Description:
Blueprint: E1 2-4, E2 13-15, H1 18-24, H2 29-33, H3 59-62, H4 100-103, E3 140-143, H5 151-160, E4 165-167, H6 177-189, E5 199-204, H7 209-213, H8 221-235, E6 250-253, H9 260-271, E7 281-284, H10 288-296, E8 306-310, H11 316-332, E9 341-345, H12 359-367, H13 372-391, H14 418-429, E10 433-436, H15 441-457, H16 461-478
Parallel strand pairs: 3-4, 3-10, 4-5, 5-6, 6-7, 7-8, 8-9, 9-10
Antiparallel strand pairs: 1-2
Helix pairs in contact: 5-6, 8-9, 12-14, 12-16, 13-15, 14-15
Amino acid sequence: MALRLKRGQSLCCFSVPLPQVRAFASASTSATTKLLPLLPYRLLVRPSPNRPVHAHANSAHQSGLSLHQRQTANNNDISFNNPTTQVREARSTSSAALSPIAARQPRGTCSTTIMASASASTGSPAGSDALHPKVNMPRMIYGTAWKKNRTADLVYEAIKEGFRGIDTAAMKRHYSEELTGEGIRRAIKDGIITREELYIQTKYTPHDDAFLAEPALYPTITSQVLASVTSSLRNFAHPDSEEDTSYIDCLIMHSPFPDPISTLEAWTALQSFVPHRIRSLGISNITLPELQYLVADPRVTVYPTVIQNRFRRAERRWDYELRRWCANQNSTRWKGEKRTRYQGFWTLTGNRGDWPTQKFVRELAAAVPKSTQEVEALEAAAAETEQKEADDEGNLVDGDPEGTGDLESGDEELGISLEAAWYALIVLGADVVVLNGTTSQQHMRDDLECLERVDRWRKTPQGKKVWDRCFEGFKALVGMPPS
């Protein structure tokens, strides 16, 4: 089946092999047609000057663009209305017939069968619906990129040290999703954690080497998505789970395709798994115009729960406009519940010219108490002061509580590391979920503990004044409006 779309006067022919669409959705022509975009292609994306952009499985490869060198979207900030909610009929399909990648995976875990999504009225998780499933996302997630054969051990250690979120991808060049699953299974087997206590997110990579090496096995974007998801579900199954019960908390599209038609086809395929086998969806390495274009389409029935981008000055000044878009989504609908979380990576390595030299980072690092016990003492003192103020209402004296004196950074010994202070400002101040890829067991422990310590300390009278002053400096740096 082929559909000719007009781009100006004409556009290339967009073809979807009917057998693949039937395997994914149904044999009906009406269901097949839902995969074909109706939005004008030329609205946001500029095609390569040397060739037309074709919407097929290998479009990213033929355009010569890597994951981090996609064709840039038009800079015009076009506003769209939010997509309307649509309820799709639940469908199921066999993974064995659609996933050559999964068929070649080692059989150390139970087999999986892909089940398509049902509507909110047919069994969504508690507190969720078809448009926005509810997931419990930690504010710091362990990143597994470039860990190679150490992946399983590092994932196990990260969970042991307190991480409750794991990020990986079905992309063998930079990740080992299979070893990530092995580390998780080991932690579950040792009783460190249960699957329900862990947040797992992985990625479908549109132009992964596996798809490009054997294009005949993956003739369409839909077949790529099904193969990738099937493989991921098998990698995250564990021996104690029953067949067909493995699930992924969030499946992130690693990047948009160079053309929005292909991006929409991939998203349509991914959202068919929500909310059962996949709890929520996200997208990474995306610009604001690309995101707005995607969510404007009425066939987008599952809104992105995660937007994952580089958080650094060189990326559109810490991606401020996209972070503001996420904040607006969270504040204007769903009664204040966060529906779209911004995740940042390269938060340390991508900003080495900024955070080590900022005075407010050092001031915060020096001011935070060196131990949780000291924070607990401050909390107890604050509670006692509040009780005394309640007893002696009307006899208050203006000024700081005793012992609040401002700390000068100077050469004092730091209460927490500069890295931990920078993380705290990003996570607690800017509401960015951070990906932390440290390979040091000590740093795993310290980064989590320091984040919790700062969060408690900044709520005490002694900590609030210093935190507010340091956070104002941070906001000026990353372009956030002052309080």
